[in-house]
Amino acid sequence: xxxxxxxxxxxxxxxxxxxxxxxxxxxxxxxxxxLPVVGDGKKLVGLVTRQRFAIKPDMMVSxxxxxxTRYLSNLTVQKIMLKAxxxxxxxxxxxxxxxxxARVMTEQKIxxxxxxxxxxxxxxxxxxxxxxxxxxxxxxxxxxxxxxxMRMPNKKGQFAALTTALSQHDLGIMGIGSFPxxxxxxxxxxxxxxxxxxxxxxxxxxxxVPEQEIVDIREx
Amino acid sequence: xxxxxGKVPGGPVLSVEDLAVAYKIRGGEIEAVQNVTFxxxxxxxxxxxxxxxxxxSTVTWAILNFLxxxxxxxxxxxxxxxxxxxxxxxxxLRRLRGDQIAMVYQDPMQALNPSMRxxxxxxxxxxxxxxxxxxxxEKRCISMLERVYMPDAANVMHRFPHQISGGQQQRVVIAMAxxxxxxxLIMDEPTxxxxxxxxxxxxxxxxELRRDFDTxxxxxxxxxxxxxxxxxxVGVMYAGEMVEVASTEDIYKNPQHPYTxxxxxxxxxxxxxxASSILYPIRGRVPPPNNRPPGCVYGPRxxxxxxxxxxxxxxxxxxANNVQVRCxxxxxxxxxxxxxxxxxxxxxxxxxxxxxxxxxxxKDLKKYYEVQGSSLxxxxxxxxxxxxxxxxxxxxxxxxxxxxxxxxxxxxxxSTLIKTIIGLEDSxxxxxxxxxxxxxxxxxxxxxxxxxxxxxxxxxxDSTMNPSYTVGQQIARPMLRFxxxxxxxxxxxxxxxxxxMRLGANYFDRLPRQLSGGEKQRVGIARALASRPDLVxxxxxxSALDVSVQAAVLNLLLEVQAEYGTTMIFIAHDLSVVRFxxxxxxxxxxxxxxxxxxxxxxxxxxxxxxxEALLSAVPIPDPSAKQKRIRxxxxxxxxxxxxxxxxxxxxxxxxxxxPDGGKICETETPPWQEDERGHRIFCHIPRETxxxxxxxxxxxxxxx
Lengths: 220, 704
Ligand SMILES: Nc1ncnc2c1ncn2[C@@H]1O[C@H](COP(=O)(O)OP(=O)(O)OP(=O)(O)O)[C@@H](O)[C@H]1O
Ligand code: SF4
Ligand code: SF4
Ligand SMILES: [Mg+2]
Fold this sequence. Notes:
The structure holds two protein chains of two kinds.
Chain A: H1 3-6, E1 8-9, H2 20-29, E2 34-38, E3 44-49, H3 57-62, H4 65-74, H5 77-80, E4 82-83, E5 92-93, H6 98-108, E6 112-116, E7 122-127, H7 128-138, E8 146-153, H8 158-168, E9 175-180, E10 187-194, H9 199-206, E11 213-219
Parallel strand pairs in A: 5-6
Antiparallel strand pairs in A: 1-7, 2-3, 3-4, 6-7, 8-10, 8-11, 9-10
Chain B: E1 14-25, E2 28-40, E3 45-49, H1 56-64, E4 71-80, E5 83-84, H2 90-97, E6 101-104, H3 118-130, H4 134-147, H5 153-156, H6 166-179, E7 184-188, H7 196-213, E8 216-220, H8 224-230, E9 233-238, E10 241-247, H9 248-253, H10 258-266, H11 307-311, E11 317-318, E12 324-325, E13 358-371, H12 376-379, E14 386-399, E15 403-407, H13 414-422, E16 429-434, E17 437-438, H14 448-453, E18 454-457, H15 471-482, H16 490-500, H17 517-530, E19 535-539, H18 547-564, E20 567-571, H19 575-581, E21 584-589, E22 592-598, H20 599-602, H21 609-617, E23 626-627, H22 659-662, H23 664-667, E24 672-674, E25 680-682, H24 687-690, E26 697-698
Parallel strand pairs in B: 3-8, 3-9, 6-7, 7-8, 15-20, 15-21, 18-19, 19-20
Antiparallel strand pairs in B: 1-2, 1-4, 4-5, 9-10, 10-12, 11-12, 13-14, 13-16, 16-17, 21-22, 22-25, 23-26, 24-25
Helix pairs in contact in B: 3-4, 3-6, 4-6, 7-21, 15-16, 15-17, 16-17, 17-18
The complex binds adenosine-5'-triphosphate, iron/sulfur cluster (SF4) (2 copies) and magnesium ion.
Residues 258, 296, 298-299, 302, 304-305, 309, 314, 327-329 of chain B line the site of one iron/sulfur cluster.
């Protein structure tokens, strides 16, 4: 899965000249937390997040109520946004993998990445929600079936043994994911989603696979 | 992934809410659009259908802020990507929309600059805003042209708009719109001017693009079949209001509003004919915006009208099945129980008299036009004359009181064929006899009687109507000229015809400009019938009309035929209409009749390969219909140098069934293969093989 497959295309974007109040209104009304700021030709110039609307405490102290009001009404998106030019905005290219995007987001502790094409034009936005949705799809949630977690030693031929067992019974796999078994080195857990079958059938088939163990099985 | 639920963060691409648009006119203003509400999500294609003048285009103009000097948004809002468009200055709008809304019109030339090479127009989009280099822009434009399946894309870049066909122009416009990766694409009748085969290819393309680019599409069309093919949601507009909004499935399978139900009853289903089915026009017509009835606007035309409909204006409300409908009684109305009201008498159909008297017999009729070249040799008349071979060896007979339908793409010679018969063109060679009289001779020798017996109805009634004559005068003229009616009875005879046309005596003194399109067409028919001709030639008589008017005009023609035993030759590009209306059908390609025979035989196996392609392109107003997908490559070749052998050989998807990939098709003229019913196919592939093809269309009711 690549970023372009899971991102939201045609995101809401605003020009830098827009008043900050209006940008805030747009974000609240459309339930969004990130607003890419674009110039001519949809090139990225910045990003507005909800935090950017907060008034800095020192300003609160030094200004009177009237001054704050005036300050706010003159405020433009340009002034409050994170600036792309100075490298404050993390972005990702549409052709990168979902894992790479997730890594940038976790490392930088950010909730969203504007997605750019090769010319720096914003073509989408990738948020935590999009990533969570892609996780569901990878694991085959949208289709009904049996979800089973198999634990196996980390050595060659284990995955093949598993798929062979299933294919011998004419069963296909809808979704798949694997991760190192927590607190048990040299073991892997593999999650499979198998449609059009019952829990009993799967238990029967997979319990025959040597060296492997069913750690969780359920209908979903 | 497209979000399907309006509550998701980011919201819809377009959200129109309670929109009202007014035009200021002398002495006040009219509300062309009222209370229109709908959303378009990413990757969704939302259709709007409805008769002419219902306000479909006005909605798009409001979105684009193109309402002109006298139009304005009176109430409501239009949000594009979460931002209100109404009430903005044009500079603000430009910045808000950026280049994220693109528009495709019916006429591609509205978007193309005729004096600029296509490549330069396309590149401009990328070089000006995106600052791409010329070379990079060129590369992207070519790949976008390839994306829209433009043959020979690199070459097309160097051409001017008039050097490519209409279908190709429309593809360039779509490619150009997509260069900006718009969030919203608005299309107003984008395929209406195209041939059915080209239309099918463009519709495929639109469906594909919506999937690949997640573009929201607002798709306007008067054709229910076209909408069924590309849209997942449909709004039905009537007299400025949205009267029903539902998924495409629901609209066609389970229409809730009486107007939607009426529209669907107006169009012939492909494969149905006049003997087995009836078209039910909707009575009356769309009221003008300044004269809408109180209560429900559809009231005067509705079969379910009750007192409450007059007293209370229905709101657009959501039913239990999630369909939105503007009718007080939607839950109670069951369209399967619908009965035509007494004023909707089905037309009388001419019964098979068993007469085999041919009224018109055509044998090997040919029409070549000489074309002037532009080389020096041509100018001095020294080169070989060149010809457009518009009609080649046409042969057919039409029995008295029957209808021959002619179908084929534009430029295939349909109109030339009938113009040659009626004498608007002289023929090059061959025989044509009408009631036993030779009609190929010098036109000036045609007798008054012959002219009287042959009448014509044109697609565009305006072009043949004298604007300063009243309706009564127009219809009376042929009666007086041919003295078919005693002078003192002319008026009553005209009124009789007007009544037959469902126009009524009060139309007698109206002028053409006071008529709607459908009314003009009916006057045109009345005038053609005034001299009581034996043969009426109709060139696209209903293609410019709304479906409900089309149904009424078709019924009328049937009635005339039953009453007077008139023989008809009927040209139309809508294959469902031709099938419905005709007893015999001829399929033409590039001047050549490819297949001819009884209508039911043409629309069933075996088909000529070209007929098969035509049928697979017909837009069907039934989203569950299964239709084989055959798309012709390339374009119709020039009629000056038509391909040798079989004229269809450059595009035929079936010739590979013959040995050597159908080499014979390039070298030898195909044989006519005829069966006992007179069904003839002009093809090298043996009939037995043609019979093994699968039917093109399968619906629950029938296979075609
Ligand atoms: N500039 C204008 N000034 C006044 N009235 C107008 C103007 N443009 C359109 N109208 C009227 O507004 C109504 C809606 O017109 P509109 O063109 O939106 O209809 P439509 O559904 O697109 O029709 P069609 O199918 O023929 O394209 C009609 O009654 C029309 O006559
Ligand atoms: S409200 Fe009444 S008049 Fe209007 S569509 Fe419904 S039944 Fe017909
Ligand atoms: S003769 Fe050959 S090219 Fe022509 S329609 Fe038949 S198969 Fe196709
Ligand atoms: Mg219109």
